[in-house]
């Protein structure tokens, strides 16, 4: 079975991903979680504590919107601090991802299928 990217790596960039989603559209937590589940395979349960932390850190602000089909929803939007954090984190991510890409680009074109023991 092939190994996948470690869940801790995904959790490490989850905040950046949430900021990027909110930079496009204000949204409620379940919708953000659904989008990230499709995009990077993160589960819904990790979003709610992160959203509370981002709110207490001043990166997002909230407002309530009445729903015709149920209870009101808490919507999240980026604050100025959130936009600043997004720009800084995106820059850091691009530098990191570029370095990883350079390492991967340096791999030989064909990989051996077995590992010989020394």
Q: Can you give a write-up of this model?
A:
With 118 residues, this protein is α+β, with helices and mostly antiparallel strands. It contains four helices and three strands; from the N terminus they run H-E-H-H-E-E-H. The chain has helices at 7-24, 29-40, 47-56, 80-105, and strands spanning 27-28, 60-67, 70-78. A three-stranded antiparallel β-sheet has the order 1-3-2.
Give the secondary structure arrangement, pairings included:
Blueprint: H1 7-24, E1 27-28, H2 29-40, H3 47-56, E2 60-67, E3 70-78, H4 80-105
Antiparallel strand pairs: 1-3, 2-3
Helix pairs in contact: 1-2, 1-4
Summed over residues and divided by their number, the pLDDT gives a mean of 89
The description of the largest β-sheet is: 3 strands, antiparallel
Main sheet strand line-up: 1-3-2
Shape: elongated
Rg calc: 19 Å
- SS-based structural class? alpha+beta
Number of strands: 3
The count of helical stretches stands at 4
